[in-house]
Automatic annotation (TrEMBL):
Gene Ontology molecular function, alphabetical: ATP binding; ATP-dependent protein folding chaperone
Protein name: Uncharacterized protein
The organism of origin for this protein: Ceratopteris richardii
Record region (Disordered): 362-382
A Pfam match: Cpn60_TCP1
InterPro entries named in the record: Chaperonin_Cpn60_CS, Cpn60/GroEL, Cpn60/GroEL/TCP-1, GroEL-like_apical_dom_sf, GROEL-like_equatorial_sf, TCP-1-like_intermed_sf
């Protein structure tokens, strides 16, 4: 997170060695590779590498040769490598690009635009902002045949593999990029769709922070899977902490929150009981942690509630009272808050429900019934 920033994308994947590795990609990474393997110009790495290319960004399919010829003539005049990003490049247009690459030695590559629908257009506009170009769109009154050099994006280096494209050092204006990032943040804050928020977050990361990949290694598939789960949990907790901050862990944040409820003045007996129920629930995490450590929960809770220092808590691992923040025992505010809100929501639902259906627990002391002639299947009740 220090490498890519709070808006950066951090992914966890399987490593190929015994140790853990961190790979950081600076710039924009698109989840699209070259359309044809004939665009490869580095046989060793099986990649297409373009130095200081011009970039055409188009939101439609390119299939007609007539619409592409004016652009190719202009690109040849630029005497620079060419990257084409479009919805698709097919038929005679693709054949022409491949022939120009193989016979004329033109350094060129074409990739499909990332995303779908409105998200694709937004991603292409992000790319145009990053590279200092324009999105060539008929909706904006621009045609492929009328493209001029100033409408092309530029970058210091572009590397295209079979699966993805990395654009480094785009020539876009820093102020324009910052404004675009702010627009995306506004989309994240105002969107009511989790899917839209997730896609906007990915766009923001690609435009501003870069991409980091944590490659988890191990001696076996089981070990790698276990370590990946732990790393993913830690990563999610860290992201949550960065978003909304932290509180002392060990359940003490909720425990001390229960003291605030003592200041409430219930209007009737029912409200009084409701407050007591919530106070009891807020004390439950600390009580459970203490009980699991083999100590009396009520004793621990009583001692903590006598304190004025709200960072003070019980370290169950060491069996001692300490400053939880200084000891590194912390919880993300977002995790605690959402857990409390979700618990309250479920409790409210159950309170207003007339009936609840649940499965009766089986008596573990009873062995499974023996199967036999005329008998039922073992382990089932009839």
């Amino acid at each position: 997170m220090e490498k890519v920033g709070k808006d950066g994308v951090i992914t966890v994947s399987d490593g190929k060695t015994m140790s853990n590795e961190l790979e950081v990609v600076e710039g924009m990474k698109l989840d699209r590779g070259y359309i044809s393997p004939y665009f490869v110009n580095n046989a060793k790495t099986q990649k297409c590498e373009l130095e200081n290319p011009v970039i055409l960004i188009h939101d439609k399919k390119i299939s007609s040769l007539n619409s592409l010829i004016p652009f190719l003539e202009m690109a040849l005049g630029e005497q620079k490598p060419v990257l084409i990003v479009a919805e698709d490049v097919e038929s005679e247009a693709l054949a022409t690009l491949v022939l120009n690459k193989l016979r004329a030695g033109l350094k060129i590559c074409a990739i499909k635009a990332p995303g779908f629908g409105e998200n694709r257009k937004a991603s292409l506009q992000d790319l145009a902002t990053l590279t200092g170009g324009q999105l060539v769109s008929e909706e904006l009154g621009m045609k492929l045949e009328k493209v001029t050099p100033d409408m092309l994006g530029r970058a210091k280096r572009v590397t295209i593999s079979k699966d993805d494209t990395i654009i480094l050092d785009g020539a876009g204006d820093k102020q324009a990029i910052a404004e675009r990032c702010e627009q995306i943040r506004e989309v994240i804050n105002t969107s009511t769709s989790d899917y839209d928020k997730e896609k906007a977050q990915e766009r923001l990361a690609k435009l501003s922070g870069g991409v980091a990949v944590l490659k988890i290694g191990g001696a076996s598939e089981a070990e790698v899977g276990e370590k990946k789960d732990r790393v993913t949990d830690a990563l999610n907790a860290t992201k949550a902490a960065v978003e909304e901050g932290i509180v002392p862990g060990g359940g003490v944040a909720l425990l001390y929150a229960s003291k605030v409820l003592e200041k409430l003045k219930p209007a009737n007996f029912d409200q009084k009981i409701g407050i007591q129920i919530i106070q009891s629930a807020l004390k439950a995490p600390t009580h459970t942690i203490a009980a699991n450590a083999g100590v009396e929960g009520p004793v621990v809770i009583g001692k903590l509630l006598e304190q004025d220092n709200w960072d003070f808590g019980y370290d169950a691992a060491k069996g001692e009272y300490t400053d939880m923040v200084k000891a590194g025992i912390i919880d993300p505010v977002k995790v605690i808050r959402t857990a409390l809100v979700d618990a309250a929501s479920v409790s409210s639902l159950l309170t207003t429900t007339e009936a609840v259906v649940y499965e009766l627990p089986k008596d573990e002391k009873e062995g499974p019934p023996m199967g036999g002639p005329g008998g039922g299947m073992g382990g089932y009740d009839y």
